[in-house]
Design a protein that fits this description.
2 strands; globular; 11% strand; 3 helices; mainly alpha
Amino acid sequence: MKLSTKCRYGIRAVLEIARNYQIRPTKRKEIAKNQGLDDSYLENILIDLKNKNIVLALRGSKGGFILRTAPEDL
């Protein structure tokens, strides 16, 4: 099965967020840097993940993205 680039990047973003699940929210720039993804393209992917209730976006200086469910439940 072939996955689109957007799908592959989304999976990589979710994996990066899952690594920090019980530790802290993961910032978009951190995901982009660690995974080697374009920051502006990643922003659109994270919005889609948020709209599909996969991740939750937290605002503020200690904000970022967290998974809505435990990683083992995905």
